[in-house]
TrEMBL record:
Transmembrane segments: none
Keyword Cell inner membrane: no
Keyword tRNA processing in annotation: no
Name of the protein described by the UniProt record: EXC6B protein
Region (Disordered): 228-265
GO aspect biological process, one term: vesicle tethering involved in exocytosis
Entry GO terms, CC: exocyst; plasma membrane
Family: Belongs to the SEC15 family.
Residue ranges occupied by any Exocyst complex subunit EXOC6/Sec15 C-terminal domain in the UniProt entry: 416-712
Annotated keywords: Coiled coil, Exocytosis, Transport
Span of domain Exocyst complex component EXOC6/Sec15 N-terminal: 47-216
InterPro entries: EXOC6/Sec15, EXOC6/Sec15_C, EXOC6/Sec15_C_dom1, EXOC6_Sec15_N, EXOC6PINT-1/Sec15/Tip20_C_dom2
Length: 713
C-alpha cells in the first residue's frame, strides 16, 4: 500500500516538473502551491534538484560539443572588430566630410522648405481671401449704400450678403459678427426708411397747396382749350372733350381716371396754350421715399404694417386739410387755399394709386372722398352763408366749379358739389336782391321825377337805345322836346337787365339745360320785380314828403315800365334760347308789379288830396251866430278850389296811349276828382253836425250855402 502511494507521489511530482518546464513563469504559482499543499515537498525538492543536475549535464555536454566553433567564432569576431573599427573611422571621416559639404545644402533646403511653407500658406491665404474679399466688398458696399441713404439697394445687398456670400465663410469670426449684425442692419434700414416716409408725408402736407393750385390751373387751361375747340369744331377734328371722356363709360371712370395713363394728368400734362410749362406733382414732391419704403417693407415682409401706417397718417392729414380756417369766408383767397389743399391731397393719392400696387386702393380713395365731400359741402354751406357780396359769391361759385371739374378729371364723383351750387344759387339771388335793392333806392332817391328833356338827336337815340320806347308823334316834334317818363325808367330797366346778366353768370358751367337756366333767371327776376323793386317803389310812394307831381310822374313811369315787360321777356328768351311758349316756362310778373305800384300811387294821390282838403278845412272859421251872410264864398274855400284846379291840371300829363292805357288820364283825373268832391262834401257835412254847433242863424246857413254853391260851380 505504501508502495502504491509512493508511485502515485512520484508520478505527480513528475507531472509537476513537466508542467514547470513547459509553463510560463508568470503562471507557475498555482503549480507550486499544489506542491506545498501536499506532504511530500521534501521528496519534490530532491526530484527538482535531480532534474536541475540532469539539465546542467546536458548543457555542459552541448557546450563541450560546440566549444571549438565558439572559439573560432570569437577569433573571427576579433578580426572583424578591427576591420569594423577601420570602417567606423572611414565612415566617421566620410560623415564629417559629408556634414561639412552638406551644411550649405541643408541651409538651402531649410530655406526652400520655408519658402515652400510660405508659398503654401500664401496660396491658402489667397484662396481664403478670394472667398472673404467678396464678403468684405459687399459689406463695404452695404455701408456705403446706407451712408448715401440708398436703402432699398442696401437691403438687396444685405440679402445677397446673407444668403450667398456669408455661408461660404461662415466659420470666420468676423463673419459671425456680420451675421449677428444683419438683424440690426435690417431694423436700421426699416427705421431710416420710415423716417424718410415721415419726411415725405410732411413734404406733401406742405406742398398740397401748390400741387392743388397746379392741378386747378391745368384744369382751367383744359377748360379754356375745350371752349376754344367747341367754338372751332372744324379745327378740333376727332378729339373728344374732357367731359365726353369722363362720361364715356362708368367702368372706365371707376377703374382709371381719364389722366391715369399719363401719371394722373397733373404729373406730366403740358399746357399747349401757354408758353410757360406748368410743373407737375413729381416736380414739386419727390415720391421716391414712399416707393422705397414700400419696397423695403415688402421685402422685409411688413407690407401690411406699412400700408396701415401710411393710410392712417394720410387720414389724419385729410382731416387737417378738410378743417377750414375760421375766416375763410372773408376773402376768395381763403376759399382758394382751402380748395388747393384738398385737390393737392387727392392728386397725390391718385398718383399713389396709379404708381403703386395696393398701397392704396379704390375703396380707400372712395372712402376718403366721401368724407372729404361731406365735410367740404358742410364747410361751404356754413361759410358761404356769411357772404353778402354777390361778386364774392359768384367768384366762389366759379372756384367751386373749377374745383369740381379738376377732381372730376381724376375720376371723383362731384354731383353733390353741383347740387350744393344750386343751393348757393338761392343765396346768390338773395345777395343780388339786396344789392339791387340799394341800387334801386339810389336811382329812385336821385331821380327828379320830371320828364327827361332832350336837346339833340344824339341824346334822343341814346335814351331810346337804353329803353324800348317808340312814339311817332314825339319823334316828329322838333328839339328840344321831352320824354314822358323821368330818368329812373331807363335806369331801372337797364338795372333789371344787369340783374338778369348777373343771374346768367352764375348759371354758367353748372351743366344745366337751357330750360333750367331760363327757369332760374325768370324766378330770380320775378323776385326782383315783385319783392325788391316793388318794395322800393312802395317806399318812395309812401314817403311823407312826396308831392302830387312826383306821384303823377311815378304813375307815368310805372306805365312805361309795365309796357317794357314784354321786351324783358324777349331779352331772357334771346339769352337762354327758350321760347316763352315752352311748357313750364315761368312768366314774368312785372306787369302786376307795376300795376300795383301805379295803384298805390293813385291811392296815395287820393289820400294826399284828402289830407290837403282837411288842411284847408281846418282854416274854416264859420260864425254860426252871424246875422248876415258874406257877399262871396269863404276865403278858405276859394283857396281850396284854386288848389284843386291846379292839381287836376297836373293830370293832363298822364299818358294817353292806345289800348288799355288810352283812358288812363281821364280815369285817374275823374277818380281823383270824385274822391276829392266826396271827401269835401262829407267834411262840410261834418262841420254842420259837429257837437259844438248847438244853434245856427239864417245868415250863417246862407253863408254855408254860398260856399256849397261855389263848390258846385
Amino acid at each position: 500500500m505504501a508502495e502504491l502511494e509512493s508511485l502515485e507521489t512520484a508520478a505527480e511530482h513528475e507531472r509537476i516538473l513537466r508542467e514547470i518546464e513547459s509553463t510560463d513563469t508568470a503562471c507557475i504559482g498555482p503549480t507550486l502551491r499544489s506542491v506545498y499543499d501536499g506532504e511530500e515537498h521534501g521528496r519534490f525538492m530532491e526530484k527538482l534538484e535531480a532534474r536541475i543536475r540532469n539539465h546542467d549535464r546536458e548543457i555542459e555536454k552541448m557546450c563541450n560539443f560546440h566549444y571549438q566553433g565558439f572559439v573560432d567564432s570569437i577569433t573571427e569576431l576579433l578580426k572583424v572588430r578591427g576591420e569594423a573599427q577601420k570602417l567606423k573611422n572611414q565612415v566617421t571621416d566620410t560623415n564629417r566630410k559629408l556634414q561639412n559639404e552638406g551644411k550649405e545644402l541643408i541651409i538651402a533646403m531649410e530655406e526652400l522648405k520655408q519658402c515652400r511653407l510660405q508659398q503654401r500658406n500664401i496660396s491658402a491665404t489667397v484662396d481664403k481671401l478670394t472667398l472673404c474679399l467678396p464678403v468684405l466688398e459687399m459689406y463695404s458696399k452695404l455701408r456705403e449704400q446706407m451712408k448715401s441713404k440708398r436703402h432699398y439697394p442696401a437691403l438687396k445687398t444685405l440679402e445677397h450678403l446673407e444668403h450667398t456670400y456669408l455661408p461660404q465663410v461662415s466659420h470666420y469670426r468676423f463673419c459671425k459678427i456680420m451675421v449677428d449684425n444683419i438683424p440690426k442692419l435690417r431694423e436700421e434700414i426699416k427705421e431710416v426708411s420710415m423716417s424718410d416716409l415721415k419726411d415725405f408725408l410732411e413734404s406733401i402736407r406742405k406742398h398740397s397747396d401748390k400741387i392743388g393750385e397746379t392741378a386747378m390751373k391745368q384744369a382751367q387751361q383744359q377748360r379754356n382749350l375745350d371752349n376754344i375747340v367747341s367754338q372751332h369744331p372744324r379745327i378740333s377734328g376727332g378729339k373728344k372733350s374732357k367731359k365726353e371722356v369722363c362720361a364715356s363709360s362708368d367702368v372706365e371712370v371707376k377703374n382709371t381716371s381719364p389722366m391715369s395713363e399719363q401719371d394722373s394728368g397733373i404729373l406730366d400734362v403740358e399746357d399747349e396754350d401757354e408758353d410757360e410749362e406748368v410743373p407737375g406733382a413729381q416736380d414739386l414732391v419727390d415720391f421716391s421715399p414712399v416707393y422705397r419704403c414700400l419696397h423695403i417693407y415688402s421685402v422685409l415682409g411688413a407690407r401690411e404694417t406699412f400700408e396701415n401706417y401710411y393710410r392712417k397718417q394720410r387720414r389724419k392729414q385729410a382731416r387737417l386739410v378738410l378743417q377750414p380756417p375760421s375766416n375763410m369766408h372773408e376773402t376768395l383767397d381763403g376759399y382758394r387755399k382751402y380748395f388747393n389743399q384738398i385737390v393737392g391731397f387727392f392728386v397725390v393719392e391718385d398718383h399713389i394709386l396709379h404708381t403703386t400696387q395696393g398701397l392704396v386702393n379704390r375703396a380707400y380713395i372712395d372712402e376718403l372722398w366721401e368724407m372729404a365731400l361731406s365735410k367740404t359741402i358742410a364747410a361751404l354751406r356754413t361759410h358761404s352763408s356769411y357772404c353778402s357780396d354777390p361778386s364774392l359769391v359768384l367768384d366762389l361759385k366759379n372756384l367751386i366749379v373749377l374745383f369740381a371739374d379738376t377732381l372730376q378729371g381724376y375720376g371723383f364723383p362731384v354731383n353733390q358739389l353741383f347740387d350744393m351750387l344750386l343751393e348757393i344759387q338761392d343765396q346768390y339771388s338773395e345777395t343780388l336782391l339786396k344789392k339791387w335793392s340799394g341800387v334801386f333806392r339810389n336811382i329812385l332817391d336821385s331821380d327828379n321825377y320830371s320828364p327827361i328833356p332832350v336837346t339833340n338827336e344824339e341824346v334822343y337815340k341814346k335814351i331810346v337805345g337804353q329803353f324800348p320806347f317808340q312814339d311817332a308823334e314825339l319823334e316828329k316834334q322838333p328839339f328840344p322836346k321831352k320824354f314822358p317818363f323821368s330818368e329812373f325808367v331807363p335806369k331801372v330797366y337797364n338795372q333789371i337787365k344787369e340783374f338778369i346778366y348777373a343771374c346768367l353768370k352764375f348759371s354758367e358751367d353748372l351743366h344745366l339745360s337751357s330750360t333750367e337756366v331760363d327757369d332760374m333767371i325768370r324766378k330770380s327776376t320775378n323776385l326782383l320785380l315783385t319783392r325788391t323793386l316793388s318794395n322800393c317803389l312802395q317806399n318812395v310812394i309812401k314817403r311823407k314828403n312826396v308831392g302830387l307831381t312826383e306821384l303823377v310822374q311815378i304813375i307815368i313811369n310805372t306805365t312805361h315800365l309795365e309796357k317794357s315787360c314784354k321786351f324783358l321777356e324777349e331779352f331772357i328768351t334771346n339769352i337762354t334760347n327758350v321760347l316763352p311758349e315752352t311748357v313750364h316756362t315761368t312768366k314774368l310778373y312785372g306787369t302786376t308789379t307795376f300795376k300795383d305800384a301805379r295803384h298805390a300811387a293813385e291811392e296815395e294821390i287820393y289820400t294826399n288830396l284828402n289830407q290837403k282838403i282837411d288842411q284847408f278845412l281846418q282854416l274854416a272859421d264859420y260864425d254860426w251866430m252871424a246875422m248876415e251872410p258874406g257877399s262871396k264864398a269863404s276865403d278858405y274855400l276859394v283857396d281850396l278850389i284854386g288848389f284843386l284846379r291846379s292839381t287836376f291840371a297836373v293830370f293832363t300829363h298822364l299818358p294817353g296811349d292806345v289800348d288799355v292805357h288810352s283812358t288812363m288820364s281821364g280815369k285817374v283825373a275823374q277818380t281823383a276828382c270824385m274822391s276829392a268832391c266826396k271827401h269835401l262834401s262829407t267834411s262840410l257835412m261834418q262841420l254842420l253836425l259837429e257837437a259844438e254847433v248847438r244853434q245856427l242863424t239864417l245868415g250863417a246857413l246862407q253863408q254855408f250855402n254860398l260856399d256849397v254853391e261855389e263848390c258846385e260851380r
